[in-house]
Write a structure and sequence with these properties.
It is a single chain. The protein is of the alpha+beta class. Helices cover 69% and strands 13% of the residues.
Length: 131
């Protein structure tokens, strides 16, 4: 079993990773008018296919009501679109709109190499700590 010091170190490392992610991603997403949750949804949608609201909430770690608000915003901003599932007409799916793909590409491009390297180092340290 881990000692309290090891557990504290792990929590501190997780906090460092979280702050590094914010420092790396938030300036780029903010420049595009996309929230952190919106970015999570856009990344999920960028993987292709249509996603149900339940899947979006589950895969992004965003509560269902928040996921609905985020998707509503992305649809209003024409970054995502809703459509009826062709296999189940009762189900609505969400997919990345062309403009959303452009936003994902721009944000990805904006992420600076130095911040990515810092984040990579923290993630390696985290992986080593939990191994």
């Amino acid at each position: 079993m881990d000692s309290p010091a090891t557990a504290v170190e792990l929590v501190e490392l997780l906090d460092q990773v979280d702050r590094a992610v914010d420092a790396t991603v938030l300036p780029a997403t903010s420049a595009e008018g996309v929230s952190r949750e919106g970015w999570r949804v856009l990344l999920l949608l960028a993987r292709g296919g249509g996603r149900s609201m339940g899947e979006i909430a589950e895969r992004t770690g965003v509560p269902a009501p928040t996921a609905t608000r985020v998707v509503n915003r992305l649809v209003a901003d024409e970054l995502a679109r809703r459509f009826t599932d062709p296999d189940d007409r009762r189900r609505v799916l969400v997919q990345l709109a062309p403009q959303g793909g452009q936003v994902v590409a721009r944000i990805t491009h904006r992420l600076s190499a130095s911040r990515r390297d810092e984040l990579r180092e923290l993630l390696v340290a985290l992986a080593d700590a939990v191994a």
